[in-house]
Amino acid sequence: MTEEVIQQEEWKPKFNPWIVSVPIIGAAFMFVLDETIANVALLHMAGSYSASREEALWILTSYLIASGIIIPAVDWFCKLMGRKAFFTFSVILFVSSSFLCGISNSLGMMIFSRILQGIGGGALLPLAQAILLENFSINERGKAMALFGMVVVIAPIIGPVLGGWITDNFHWSWIFFINIPIGLFTVILIKYLLEDPPYAKKQKNVRIDTIGFFFLTIWLVTMQIILDKGNNADWFNAIWVRRMAIVCVISAICFFISQFKQKDSLVDLNVFKDKNFSIGTLIQVIVNLVLLASMAILPQFLQTLMGYNAYLSGLTMMPRGAGSLTSVLLSGLLANKVDNRLLICLGLVFIGIAGFQLSELNLEISMPSISVPNFILGLGMGFSLVPSIALSAVTLNNNQMTNAAGLQNLLKNIGGAIGTSISGTMIARCSQMHQYELVEHLNDLNPVYQERLSAIAGGMSQFTHPVEAEYMAKNVIYQQLVQQSTLLGFTDTFRMFSIAAIVIIPTVFLLKNINNTKKS
């Protein structure tokens, strides 16, 4: 271990790291929970504001955009205010804006409140990750990341269940009000337990990188708009999408150039020179893409094709939570006993298996047909995320943790947004393709079609005119065709995500194992 690393490791927290982790985990849990808890209540919110589903999607999008913008600036804000002060400010802003979300009486007020909530919450996850990694020694980081993994993996799964139950039994506003007691308790604990190491204290003469922040904002806002609205506009066939894509690409290029050239840059991109960090981040981005995409499309499948309500569709995610909890605990116990790369590979294989199982779904399935793949997928999430977070940070110094965690969580957010957008596009396009193929069989020369049409029309002719009965029978068969083609669109999407998890397995062995690092 080099002299620089030894100096970074000299600082030790005053309190036991496990005690300090309580408010840290509480803050991170609130943020991650709010990424998914509003999903199942979106239609109810749209109804309250007399808005369409497309308009109501901005309730989700505004939160992601705001948090995405603030994440890379976390390290800079810590230097400006001191990390403890900035962490406390972020929690207070998150709680206050949660209250505003709950009392919002218009769509505009709700979107504004969600932007504030995203600004406050965006810093919570990277700060929690950085503080946990610093407070625990290298030997215990596997256990620390197991604790962190419980938040990252399990909270998004609890979100739809809790959100569905609250929405069906009370009112959707309570999905925001529940943050208030948790947040206030967290602020009190932060005040008495958390302390700033020497390198995380408030610094003098800190300059803001206005150019970098400007290009970052333009980049992320335009990208999120394209991802959210591109499918409805037929992507690049729309002139405004092409123009906005050009602005997005130019802004991204300008942002990265400014970060390399400016002395006081918003983020330090040199951490990507660390092979473990770069590869570990790539793995986490892919896993987060699959996690959030599957979280978005599975409830849609159950509600639109299977007739589940908000609570039941959320309840089907519980086995995934059980699987995640199991794998996270096992990852923590095995962190220093087995090669962590093998755990990541095992997790990616589980994700692949679960994806292929979900690709075999049909409209006659029972609850276990959803529960078993979800449990396996949960196992895969825990085994792949927890060790990859630990391995990505093992070769970094403590003073790099806050910046590295911010960049990593920014890319994971982008991965999740892309995954959610890709899933919606794939379902729509694959459904259209299958509908085009299936409709060829609905012709008068097909005896099976004629037999089915006659059977349905015969039953309806008892209640209406034969001509009208035949017309209604054709409509029934066509609706069945649309339903089946939509089902095939969902199964194709699940299959593609499982393939993505399997394909990245070879990159895992490019990582340096945590035990090998300690020996070197």
Give me the Rg, rounded: 25 Å
Helix content: over 70%
Low-confidence stretches: 1-9, 516-520
- Total number of domains: 2
How big a fraction of the residues is strand? under 5%
Q: Which CATH first-tier class of the largest domain would you pick?
A: Mainly Alpha
Mean of residue pLDDT values: 83
Please give the CATH architecture of the largest domain: Up-down Bundle
**What structural category characterises the helix and strand content?**
mainly alpha
What name is given to the CATH topology of the largest domain?
Answer: Growth Hormone, Chain: A
- The total of beta strands comes to 0
> In whole angstroms, how far apart are the ends?
7 Å
Tally of helical runs:
23
Q: Major sheet, described briefly?
A: none
Model description:
The protein is mainly alpha-helical and 520 residues long. The protein has 2 domains: 3-207 and 264-433 and 487-519, Up-down Bundle (Growth Hormone, Chain: A); 208-263. Helices cover 77% and strands 0% of the residues. The protein contains 23 helices and no strands. It has helices at residues 3-9, 17-36, 42-48, 53-70, 74-81, 83-103, 107-122, 124-135, 141-169, 174-177, 179-193, 210-229, 239-261, 275-304, 310-315, 318-334, 340-358, 367-393, 401-438, 447-460, 466-503, 505-508, 514-519. Helix 2 (17-36) packs antiparallel against helix 11, helix 4 (53-70) packs parallel to helix 7 and helix 12 runs antiparallel to helix 13 (239-261). The termini are close together.
Question: What are the main properties of this structure?
Answer:
520 residues; mainly alpha; Growth Hormone, Chain: A; 2 domains; 23 helices; 77% helix; 0% strand; disordered N terminus; disordered C terminus
